[in-house]
Amino acid sequence: MEKCSRGFALYEVIVTLSIMVLLSTLALSYGASNRAQTRILRDEAAIVSYLGRARALAVKGYTAGETICAYGVHFDAEAKTITLFEDKASPCSAADYVRGAGDGDVETYALNPQVSVTAPSDITFVPPEVVVRVMPSGLWPAMVSLATGSETTNIEIYESGQITTP
C-alpha cells in the first residue's frame, strides 16, 4: 500500500523556521557592526584622496615665481571638515605653510559627525621637491586618527610625501 503524504511534518517546519531566524539574526547584527566601519572607511578614503590631491597639485602646479607656494589639507576638528587649500605668499620664502586668510580654498569635505578625528591642523606639500610640512610641528610620521565606537584607523604621512593606511 502506498502512503500518501500531504504537507510537511511539524518538526520539518520548526527546523526550517529556526534556521531562518538564525540567519536573519546573523544578517542584522553583521549589518549593524559594519555601519561604524563603513563610516570610518568613507572618511579615511576622503582624507587620503585630499592628501594625494594636495601632493599631486604641488608636483604639477609648481611654476617658479608663482604666488601659490604650497598645497595643503586643513583639518577642522570642531566643524568636522577637511579643506584642500592653496598656500599663497609673495615671495614664497615668506610662506607660513598653514591655511590663513589670504590663502585660497580649493574644496571642502564634511566628515561624518559620528567620526572623531585627531590630526595636525595643517599638512602642507611644498614644491618643487614636495617637502611635507606639518603644523603644529611634531614627530614623523604625521598621524591622522579616525575613531567611532570601537572602530579606529590611522593614516600616516611621511616627510617624503608617502601616505599609508593600515
From TrEMBL:
Keyword vocabulary terms for this entry: Membrane, Transmembrane, Transmembrane helix
Transmembrane spans: 9-32
InterPro entries according to UniProt: N_methyl_site
Annotated NCBIfam families: IV_pilin_GFxxxE (TIGR02532)
Protein name: General secretion pathway GspH domain-containing protein
Organism expressing this protein natively: Candidatus Jorgensenbacteria bacterium GWA1_54_12
Lineage, uppermost ranks: Bacteria, Candidatus Joergenseniibacteriota
